[in-house]
Amino acid sequence: MLKQANQRQSSVVYKRYIEHSEQSSYIEVPFEMPEHVEEIHVRFEVLPHDGESSSHAVIDLGVRDSARVRGWSGGARKEFYIGQEKATPGYLPGSLASGEWAVLHNAYKVPEEGCTVMIEIVFTFKTPRWLKGDLHTHSVHSDGSYTLAENAAIMESLGCDFIAMTDHNTNSQNLAYPRETSVLMIPGTEFTTNFGHSNFLGVTDPMDDFRVKGMADVHEKFRIARERGARIVLNHPHCEYCAWEWDFEVDHDWVEIWNGLWHERNSRALAWWQEQLAAGRRLVAVGGSDVHRPDPHLKHAMPCVWVWSEEKTVQGVLGGIDRGHVVITYAPDGPFANLHCGEYMIGDEVPFEQSNREIVIELDDLHAGDLIRLYSERGLEREIPAESEGGMVLTFDGKERRFLRAEIWRYFEQAETTLMATVTNPIYFASR
């Protein structure tokens, strides 16, 4: 599967005999934190001593890094995890800097014969991989009906990796994100005006006041959000209800070409984006469901944004989008497309000096009859029907082209029409 990547893991096991005389003392079991770790998982158990059960031993659990205690659960837990964004309650997420760490034990109660603790530590390493999620959702913190926990639970059930809850002109949702979920929470706010909407992503509090009277005020809000570290997306710019009617010369990063179910507004945004690309602009395209409440058709991660990310962190995902490593599918289980030219992929620029400009287009989860369309600055280059289910590989000579991108169109029986199923960002070619 093109979309799957197994993360590299390693584990170590330590044993520490605790004598009765050490009762009521704190014990450290040092270990070396390797480089490039994304998450650690620690578990321990008290082993029987000389055939006798040591179940009546009480040994507390915690951990320190090279600078401070990073968590303590006393006798309440036998295991915990720490990641860069999340951790077991009682433990602090954050940097997993390499160096000497230690598992901490409090020998609260030790039998006369002593006891042995066995500790297993599993290191999960940062692995570049495709992560999927939704960059545009709403909750009860504005005009949505989903609670934050409900949004997170739905995304987790879909197997998604991240969500941005972009409530209108508020940031309270960013302060109340649920912690006990595997889904990465990307801070977000939808800057909502009477003449256009935009998402500010990646910062908890991107603005102090959303009210604007004119273009100068819009520029100022963007300036403040940018100064605070936000990535800025122009949302549904060609929507029939709330198009972007402000100046397009605002300081933005990405454009939402796919909002909710595929519709004419998305077709207009796609055509506009193609014009920008053909004119030489390198503008990253993203999507988002804009889901507000239960709906028989519009659901979370429809469309689904796939990002090639170095790690499962907010900055990892946003950094991947910045580099244009983005594919949008109609749903998490939609067909997938990836483009490569040698070591370069979607979003990358192939150097002028590289003579081999053959692009390999890898496709997966196709249905027979799906249409694969390849676009460059010249417009539609090729249209190839999928003859069977599953995957296929195409090639294209990128010589004398500035970029190439792919689309997959599918006939949906429920809608009784052919609609976009997948769109990739381009791979670019440097000119002299």
UniProtKB/TrEMBL annotation:
Q: Where does the record place the Polymerase/histidinol phosphatase N-terminal domain?
A: 133-195
Which SUPFAM superfamilies does this entry report, sorted A to Z? PHP domain-like (SSF89550)
What SMART domains would the database entry show? POLIIIAc (SM00481)
Q: Report which superkingdom the organism of origin falls in.
A: Bacteria
Please list the GO terms describing molecular function.
5'-3' DNA exonuclease activity; 5'-3' RNA exonuclease activity
Give the NCBIfam families listed for this entry: CehA_McbA_metalo
The identity of this protein, by name, is CehA/McbA family metallohydrolase
